[in-house]
Specification:
By secondary structure, the chain is of the alpha+beta class. It folds into two domains: 51-214, no CATH class; 229-452, Porin, CATH 2.40.160. It is built from six helices and 19 strands. The chain has helices at 3-43, 57-65, 94-97, 203-207, 216-226, 380-383, and strands at residues 81-85, 90-91, 111-112, 124-132, 138-147, 152-156, 171-172, 179-186, 190-197, 237-255, 262-283, 286-308, 317-322, 330-340, 342-343, 349-361, 384-399, 404-419, 434-452. An eight-stranded antiparallel β-barrel has the order 10-11-12-14-16-17-18-19. Strands 1-4-5-6-7 form a five-stranded antiparallel sheet, with no helix packed on it. Strand 5 (138-147) and strand 6 form a beta hairpin.
Length: 467
């Protein structure tokens, strides 16, 4: 090959190589421009809910049942729509027109939103919807959506003035309620209707708007972990308790005479049999209620004794007379109580309580004192006055089921009573009279849940206009 031909071949090869490089650069530049345009277009679009994003079976079923309209009402996914977070009180159709596919754009008129009271709603979403009637007239409507944490609140501009302060209560979808018909009344173009979806039922869609609802089931699980029994949950509740308790103690009354410094009538209480029923209401941990009980005392040794100080240089002599007296053996008790539930370990609770009561003896017998010291004209209910008492102690509560608690009770009972004037016949000092009744009690019972109130974070469902 001559020197000329070699030089020509090398120049041609170099030129072809440069052309290939230019072509590759041009292709890369075109791809970059296309990608940038697509990215810009994607950035300018707004979330839109489409039939592919929701299960339309329930909504379509509603449409089939809606036979009163001459024209079937469309659901919101069939309407031009754009959904976005609230950033300002001015909106226009630009946001909605970016989602149109070959349809005629809506007017670019700007609308000023007048917000309602949305206190306590951390997130606000704006929904723009495009409507068209049979005459081809079109309007743009708006819906404000507030986050109630476990549900969404829908503020609907039903008079089409973009003022949400004059439209009444907001709409909250109840449990298992997926949609609601919305009517928008305009002055010039008539009424436009559509089916509004509950976006709260489509949490994956809400995530795209950076909106998250509280999982109410998880909240209830946390509450159950803290309050394992509904009886002791933080909700208000009515419950009833039946119990039996026993115990023992002592009772007496004493006084002094001019001759003797101390004369006492006493009896031991060998056993107490107390059957009780109570109705109580609780708010969180505090319980208040009414208690009714039948109390039977098994009386042991009844006696009368005196301390004789007639010999100054000697210790007083105690003179005892046995089987003296006739103490009451049964009574009815009724009163009010308060107790407070304190959680211990796992599912066990300690409940200190205080009970104030009155009582009435069921026997009409005289006391039968020693000799003529005590009048026999008075029965038990006559000579004991101011028949009141109180009981204090604590209960241990353990769950037996979701609505039943086993209750173990321990406490002290004290009676407050006086001696009626005329009971003691012999000469005595009225200021020296003392009375005493104390028993130590313990027992077991069951507490049953009658009704459980509902808190907003449990099973409660907000009504329209409430949150």
């Amino acid at each position: 090959m001559t020197r000329y031909k070699k030089h020509y071949w090398a120049a041609s090869h170099h030129k072809k190589k440069q052309t290939d490089i230019y072509m590759k650069k041009a292709i890369l530049l075109i791809l970059f421009c296309i990608t940038s345009l697509v990215g810009v277009q994607a950035q300018n679009t707004f979330p839109i809910i489409t039939p592919s994003q929701v299960d339309l079976y329930e909504y379509n079923k509603y449409k089939l049942m809606n036979t009163t309209d001459e024209v079937q009402v469309k659901n919101m996914s069939e309407l031009p729509n754009a959904i976005f977070r609230y950033e300002g009180n001015t909106v226009n159709a630009t946001m909605l027109n970016r989602n149109l596919m070959g349809e005629e754009p809506f007017t670019h008129e700007e609308f000023t939103l007048k917000l309602p009271d949305m206190t306590g709603m951390p997130d606000t979403v704006v929904m723009l919807l495009g409507h068209k009637n049979d005459q081809g007239e079109r309007i743009l409507s708006a819906v404000l959506v507030g986050n109630l944490r476990n549900k969404l609140a829908y503020f609907i501009d039903d008079n089409h003035n973009f003022d949400f302060t004059d439209d009444g209560n907001f709409l909250v979808f109840q449990e298992n309620e997926l949609f609601s018909r919305v009517n928008i009344a305009t002055e010039e173009k008539g009424t436009f209707s559509y089916i509004l979806f509950d976006l709260g039922a489509h949490k994956e869609y809400l995530k795209g708007l950076d909106i998250y609802l509280i999982d109410t089931k998880k909240v209830r699980e946390k509450k159950i972990a803290k309050y394992p029994v509904p009886l002791l949950s933080s909700e208000s509740r009515w419950s009833m308790q039946f119990a039996f308790s026993t115990g023992s103690g002592k009772q007496y009354f004493s006084y002094s005479t001019p001759q003797l410094k101390d004369k006492q009538y006493s009896a031991t209480i060998d056993a107490v049999s107390r059957f009780s029923a109570s109705l109580q209401y609780a708010i969180r941990h505090l319980n208040v209620g009414f208690n009714f009980a039948f109390d039977a005392n098994q009386i042991g040794r009844e006696e009368q004794y005196v301390l004789d100080y007639s010999t100054p240089d000697e210790s007083p002599k105690k003179v005892t007379h046995y089987n003296i007296g006739n103490w009451a053996r049964s009574r009815l008790m009724y009163g009010v109580f308060a107790e407070y539930d304190i959680r211990l370990i796992r599912n066990s609770y300690l409940s200190p309580y205080f009970y104030v009561f009155r009582y009435h003896h069921l026997t009409n017998e005289s006391f039968a004192g020693y000799a003529n010291e005590i009048s026999e004209a008075f029965t038990h209910n006559d000579f004991f006055k101011n028949k009141t008492g109180h009981q204090f102690g604590a209960k241990i509560k353990l769950p037996m089921s979701e609505k039943v608690l086993a209750v173990f009770d321990i406490g002290y009972t004290e009676n407050n009573f006086g001696i009626k004037e005329g009971l003691i016949i012999e000469d005595h000092d009225p200021a020296s009279i003392k009375t005493y009744y104390k028993t130590f009690n313990y027992g077991i019972g069951c507490q049953f849940l009658l009704s459980n109130g509902k808190s907003r974070l449990s099973k409660a469902r907000p009504a329209v206009g409430e949150y």
